[in-house]
Fold this sequence. Notes:
Largest sheet of chain A: 3 strands, mixed
Helix content of chain A: 55-70%
CATH superfamily of the largest domain in chain A: SLC41 divalent cation transporters, integral membrane domain
Number of strands of chain A: 6
Number of domains of chain A: 3
Oligomer: homodimer
CATH topology of the largest domain in chain A: Tetracycline Repressor, domain 2
Amino acid sequence: xxxxxxxxxxxxxxxxxxxxxxxxxxxxxxxxxxxxxxxxxxxxxxxxxxxxxxxxxxxxxxxxxxxxxxxxxxxxxxxxxxxxxxxxxxxxxxxxxxxxxxxxxxxxxxxxxxxxxxxxxxxxxxxxxxxxxxxxxxxxxxxxxxxxxxxxxxxxxxxxxxxxxxxxxxxxxxxxxxxxxxxxxxxxxxxxxxxxxxxxxxxxxxxxxxxxxxxxxxxxxxxxxxxxxxxxxxxxxxxxxxxxxxxxxxxxxxxxxxxxxxxxxxxxxxxxxxxxxxxxxxxxxxxxxxxxxxxxxxxxxxxxxxxxxxxxxxxxxxxxxxxxxxxxxxxxxxxxxxxxxxxxxxxxxxxxxxxxxxxxxxxxxxxxxxxxxxxxxxxxxxxxxxxxxxxxxxxxxxxxxxxxxxxxxxxxxxxxxxxxxxxxxxxxxxxxxxxxxxxxxxxxxxxxxxx
Amino acid sequence: xxxxxxxxxxxxxxxxxxxxxxxxxxxxxxxxxxxxxxxxxxxxxxxxxxxxxxxxxxxxxxxxxxxxxxxxxxxxxxxxxxxxxxxxxxxxxxxxxxxxxxxxxxxxxxxxxxxxxxxxxxxxxxxxxxxxxxxxxxxxxxxxxxxxxxxxxxxxxxxxxxxxxxxxxxxxxxxxxxxxxxxxxxxxxxxxxxxxxxxxxxxxxxxxxxxxxxxxxxxxxxxxxxxxxxxxxxxxxxxxxxxxxxxxxxxxxxxxxxxxxxxxxxxxxxxxxxxxxxxxxxxxxxxxxxxxxxxxxxxxxxxxxxxxxxxxxxxxxxxxxxxxxxxxxxxxxxxxxxxxxxxxxxxxxxxxxxxxxxxxxxxxxxxxxxxxxxxxxxxxxxxxxxxxxxxxxxxxxxxxxxxxxxxxxxxxxxxxxxxxxxxxxxxxxxxxxxxxxxxxxxxxxxxxxxx
Lengths: 451, 451
């Protein structure tokens, strides 16, 4: 995909060659932070440091937050201590936590020392919350109001505080002990008569989360209630931070990627595909492949047990890949439907019976339709009517089995409070391979009267 | 999952039995629209109509937007024409389009007639944009300002218009021809000196989309630039609507579900799993299962061709499921990583060479490690050293093949401008089954000297 910044690179090179720094500054200021970050990630390090230094301070901080991890570390190496201190001091608290989460522990320790005592306390506090919790991604930079203020006073207070706050569109009403009393939108403050009290227009029972709520749950709640900002309270219901929708969009993307990876039998990678070391990537994929290979070894024993039948009716082997492959595919389909349904909250415990009935019916329908294809194929291969019958019957059973395994395994995972997505397609396909093969040869033995 | 509304149901039943409608109204007003909607979806129809009628009008409209399709249609049947007209007249334009998209065409036609001429024009216009386009999900309810206004005048205009607008936090500066000149945030208007002109504080080069931009692209742009609201312009750069972040969260969830379904070889379903008819569901799954079965029939021919080898060395069959299953699993893993990387924009055309190199290396690493397991297994089954060697060598090749097919097929789809996710795991696994089997027997023939 062509990005908006790409056409500007030659322009920057020309301006740098001419030494026209004023023009560079103007051009930089006209760009959006994510585009600037992507451009800086892509250009050579020397130009990068030069251009970054020419950014106005506010913009530099925003751009810094969007840079890739490796670029950030490299820039930090090039900066003076004073420059670094200025950047991390001014970053918003949630973005700083995110930065620290990515940097090596040693670097974080050094950076923490460069912060002012007040900011260092905040940074340490946020870093103490468990990973992926609401506490870890929140920022304490919210506008707080008192319930006895008038709308006019509230707006005055907002104007005074705005520059240092993450958002002013949602403000939080707290008491002396900093307990959350309500939430008031700037829109309502502006629309209200100046003398109206904040108490009269606030929502006294706002949706909120606690510091240990999982970030994925936070995302789901914010999406459900269409919230721009959500308050985070501690165990004593004291307001300690807020989370805004832009952070949640990142969380949603991350969590979705994790679900995709889990369902393909990959342990979630922390960073993007290209940023992950090849050996790490192989390691993340190895576990489930090994589990599948070990499970598949059962198929070897099954086949060895039936080697007599195979030697006598070699045509039985012709349909092994078709049969177990199809069962695995049906299983993957069912698993995906139910796992996604559980993730978005559409399917709950009380729906299980319906899901079971639906998958049984779909399994029989699909198995029946596909069995017809298999019979045609058997006829074409001149296998004789007995093998055709065996394959057709086995296919119906295996597709049904695939469907049922596809729902059973994620449900079992969920029951044990494990993310149902760990029941990956590959694993489900493997389980269906093993059971399908046993069923196939049982049917064969029965029909051929070989036992 | 226990929802917040569930504990309130007995309370409502008690109040209904007592006929205490005032208390019911108070309790209803204290609830959030999504919870109310979910409760109404779950309770019996008679109580539902009763409770819905007791909702204050504003809340009723919001709740109506959150209800499930079937509940909405049923409520519409119970309402008088006047009640219906009031609800759909007052709905925000984007939510009304979404409602109309779900209702049967006949019902929509009837409902359109109940709208005021002004609203009917808007509704018709929005319904004319292509499905899934920015035009179809936008709303024309934005605050428009002129560039010569002062901050004070702008705020006065916002206060006048606010009640009928989707958001007041982002306002749009247009000229006489309604062309978009810039965007100004309420925050900046409030912080500015009252006499500052809008021109001075607006962003004159805002990120915007056009009416035919795909909704998924809109979501990606808004997430990239952390936008709360994005303007939508027509071909003449006239501002025709806006899209807000809450709509985009729904789009993201929908698109993610579609990607999951496609990757499992399911044609995307329009509605949720439980709302989709079983026969429709079977149909959506049938296509890819059939394609896979038809492709798998090639394996039958391959096996038939090598039936001589199989009869002589029956131990060769023991490893067929293990071998092709593992290749398919590796393919699913690679495909997931690259498809997700392309979806989130991390992997582009220029990265292909790197991806190819990485997948080759990972394939060799994983294949090598798994081959050791396979050799141990062959030893346990007393297959003799030649079969063990064949299996080990074939496994490395098949895993490598799986990796390469896993990246090649999505890339080819992307090249032909098809969503790479259509290259589903099941299809990739099937292709790997076929090629893997051929490779296995070629190696066998070579090692055993049977040709």
